[in-house]
Design a protein that fits this description.
The complex is a heterodimer of chains A (325) and B (283). Chain A has eleven helices and 15 strands. Chain A has 325 residues and is α/β, with parallel strands linked by helices. In chain A, helix 3 packs across helix 4 and helix 4 packs across helix 5. Classes of the chains: A alpha/beta (325), B mainly alpha (283). Chains A and B meet through helix 2 and helix 3 of A and helix 1, helix 2 and helix 6 of B. The structure holds adenosine-5'-triphosphate and magnesium ion.
Chain lengths: 325, 283
């Protein structure tokens, strides 16, 4: 966090933000708070309402109800003063295929009345350089690959120094190398004090760079907070690897660790894993092993595991492959 | 960030966006293909007249066709008369129908608006560019016509509809005046195209509807049963530039046409504004 955080107001703040398409609520009364200086991961499966939310944040779509404040300004009125300070990538890049990458950025830069024309060329070149497109600057965009277009879209968000970057699935279509580059780009921007709001359906892609995250599911915001807060919500699990699963389960029940579940699917009939949720306050983990051993249960492995963020994410959004409607 | 504070200090007036719009329009191959096709019309007419041995009989074919062999300066006028009913509205419909819908379908609209271009400013710039195209399209026909006429046929003083004769220089001036008249004629259609373009994300649909409207308007204008409607049709004065070919020039139809076109611009610009200023950009 930098001095920006001192200015108090969050970078993004929504209250009861709702968007209906007909009777279907694509975004259903969400209250987002993105602190200044944060790298905020906006997670959710396909169709959960991420892009729709971002469109409302940027004034592209009018909320059915609710309010949006960006950098301390109400988005129902102050668009013109706020948006020059915001760089955005929304639902993939959009460019004129018959113009070169540099000409495209030039064009979009002229739309911003606050972007000085004197430095336009230099800014376009440095933005292209920054996303690794320096060599392809004069190539027509229709000859760009998917990943190159995606990079050009990110370059467009970086044309002027921004206070807030809103990136909708920035790593879509990028190779692993490109994904890594985007991550380090986001890190370096955050280090400069830019707040970054980045959406993704792949937790793993942004887990390493985020300070905060929120999870969307079918239009609802089901979790929000710092990464640590989100991790903590899940209950830790006790895991015992033993050849005497039934006896172990009985011990678990006695200690109040229920429900215990037995998983002997790892192929060896010799041992099975017994798992139970750990109730932090009641049970001292060390006493569990002692209780097991004193009951004659052979313990081959013992661990206490917190749910990974990935498990959390799946638990919050459901595992099914079908798009929730 | 001090640098972004600096950036924010003073907004430019924003001519850069208009310049960029024009450069995008005129860097498109499609635009040049249309202008070349328009320029080809008077050239084909001139070549056809030149290569056929028989002089076209007066009273058949487009007005002035029979005069071309005596005076090449008429080629431009014949070209314009041929192009006004269909070819010019066709190209104007393509450009005007593409204005907003084209950006929407390319996905650039959201980036222009997030930049932010400002919705009103973007509409104004788009309309201005469409008007510039009207002028360019008309000039393409007039200039190509004058050039091929001078190259293939004798050139001399021109006899006007009123029977007076004017010099070559003045007749070129009159051609420009006719071109101006036709450019103005097409502005109303541009405004209609701009409005239709705000209704859809499918540019081809907006283009086709605009062109169809141009045709419908002319069909209605030709039905005597709809007399009362004729003065309100945007195509009503499209071919009324004969007044500019008399001595002294009668400005009546120029004025009426300008007022009618201005009214169409007002109405459809207001509709476009009403639609676009509150539209959800979901493309
Ligand atoms: N223009 C529209 N008209 C009707 N429904 C829409 C429209 N745009 C989006 N929706 C619906 O709103 C819901 C949310 O869509 P949205 O694009 O915000 O999802 P998303 O979270 O960005 O998904 P993805 O990860 O696939 O990009 C979807 O169910 C979609 O069908
Ligand atoms: Mg999306």
């Amino acid at each position: 966090m930098t001095g920006d955080a001192a200015s108090g107001e969050p970078a993004i703040e929504t209250h009861g933000l709702t968007k209906r398409f007909g009777s279907y609520a694509a975004v259903n009364g969400i209250d987002l708070t993105v602190p200044r200086g944060a790298v905020f991961g906006f997670l959710g499966p396909n169709g959960s309402g991420k892009t729709t939310t971002i469109r409302m944040l940027l004034g592209l779509a009018v909320p059915t109800s609710g309010t949006v404040r960006l950098l301390g300004h109400d988005m129902s009125g102050d668009l013109r003063d706020v948006l020059p300070r915001v760089g955005a990538l929304v639902e993939g890049p959009g460019f004129y295929p018959y113009l070169s990458g540099a000409a495209n950025l030039n064009r979009l830069d002229t739309a911003d009345r606050y972007a000085p024309s004197a430095t336009r060329r230099a800014r376009v070149d440095s933005a292209l350089e920054r996303v690794g497109l320096g060599h392809a600057a004069r190539k027509k965009v229709h000859a760009y690959s998917l990943g190159m277009k995606q990079r050009l879209g990110i370059a467009n968000a970086l044309l002027t120094p921004r206070e807030l970057l809103v990136l909708d699935e920035p790593t879509n279509g990028l190779d692993p190398q490109g994904t890594r580059e985007v991550r380090s780009l986001v890190r370096s921007l955050a280090a400069e004090g830019t707040t970054v709001f980045v959406s993704s359906h792949l937790l793993a892609e942004i887990e390493q760079i985020c300070t905060h995250a929120a999870v969307m599911s079918v239009g609802n915001l089901v979790a929000q907070g710092t990464l640590d807060e989100l991790r903590r919500v899940g209950q830790p699990q006790v895991r015992v690897l033993t050849p005497d699963p039934d006896a172990a389960a009985r011990v678990f029940e006695r200690l109040g660790l229920s429900p215990a579940s037995v998983d002997d699917s790892d192929g060896t009939a010799a041992a099975a894993t017994v798992t139970a949720p750990l109730n932090d306050e009641l049970t001292d983990p060390d006493s569990i092993v002692a209780a097991l051993v004193s009951d004659g249960v052979r313990v081959r492995g013992f661990s206490i595991e917190r749910a990974s963020l990935e498990d959390r994410f799946v638990a919050l959004t459901g595992e099914g492959f079908d798009i929730a409607q | 960030m001090p640098s972004s504070q600096l950036l924010r200090s003073r907004p430019a007036v924003g001519w850069a966006l208009l310049a960029s719009e024009l450069s995008v329009l005129f860097r498109r191959r499609r635009t040049w293909a249309m202008l070349l096709a328009l320029a080809a019309v008077p050239i084909l007419i001139a070549l056809a007249v030149r290569l056929s041995s028989a002089t076209p009989p007066p009273g058949r074919g487009p007005a002035f066709l029979d005069q071309i062999t005596q005076n090449g300066l008429f080629v431009g006028a014949v070209g314009l008369i041929v192009c006004v009913p269909l070819f010019l509205p066709l190209t104007v419909g393509v450009v005007a129908g593409d204005t907003i819908a084209g950006e929407a379908s390319a996905g650039t609209l959201r980036y222009l608006l997030v930049a932010p271009a400002g919705r009103v400013r973007l509409l104004l710039v788009k309309f201005a560019a469409a008007v510039v195209f009207c002028v360019a399209a008309t000039l393409a026909v007039a200039v190509a016509g004058a050039a091929i006429g001078i190259a293939l046929f004798p050139v001399g003083p021109v006899t006007l509809l009123s029977g007076d004769t004017i010099s070559v220089g003045e007749s070129l001036l009159r051609s420009l005046l006719v071109a101006a008249y036709i450019s103005v004629s097409l502005i109303g259609l541009s405004a209609i195209g701009l409005f239709i373009s705000t209704l859809t994300d499918v540019p081809v649909g907006a283009m086709a509807s605009t062109i169809v409207l141009a045709v419908v308007s002319q069909v209605l204008d030709s039905l005597p049963q709809l007399d009362w409607l004729h003065p309100w049709l945007f195509s009503h004065y499209w071919l009324g530039f004969g007044d500019l070919l008399r001595q002294p020039i009668s400005w009546d139809s120029f004025g009426n046409n300008a007022i009618l076109q201005a009214a169409y611009v007002l109405v459809f610009a207001a509709l476009a504004y009403g639609r676009f200023s509150s539209k959800d950009i979901l493309s």
